[in-house]
Design a protein that fits this description.
CATH topology: Alpha-Beta Plaits
Number of strands: 4
Strand order of the largest sheet: 2-3-1-4
Order of helices and strands: EHHEEHEH
Oligomer: single chain
Helix content: 40-55%
Radius of gyration: 16 Å
Structural class: alpha+beta
Mean pLDDT: 92
Largest sheet: 4 strands, antiparallel
CATH class: Alpha Beta
Length: about 100
């Protein structure tokens, strides 16, 4: 199943994490764990933020992936199942029958 992980990092903690190197380490650890197909970084509500799209069927992966951002960066994390356009279209067409 495709999942979208979205995170935001508080400004003060993010500034500190950049200076002491924990930002890069935490993000690298999460990316190594999830092996996302895409990763995007942006600013949301004045905070550093990012989205990772990845594939998994292992719910236990979430704790392993989340903890580096929780512990090192005080990040807020949301994980949501997502579908590609073609998968949604097939589902909608089959529901209409």
């Amino acid at each position: 199943m495709h999942m979208m992980l979205k995170f935001t990092i508080p400004v003060v903690k993010g500034n500190q994490a950049i200076k002491d190197g924990t930002m890069v380490k935490a993000l690298d650890q999460m990316i190594d764990t999830l092996q996302p197909e895409s990763v995007y970084f942006f600013v949301e509500d004045g905070k550093r933020a990012g989205i990772m799209i990845f594939e998994t069927s292992d719910a236990g992966l979430f704790a392993k992936a989340n903890e580096p951002l929780f512990a090192a960066l005080d990040a807020a994390i949301d994980i949501t199942p997502v579908v590609e356009r073609e998968v949604l279209k097939k589902s909608l067409v089959s529901m209409a029958k």
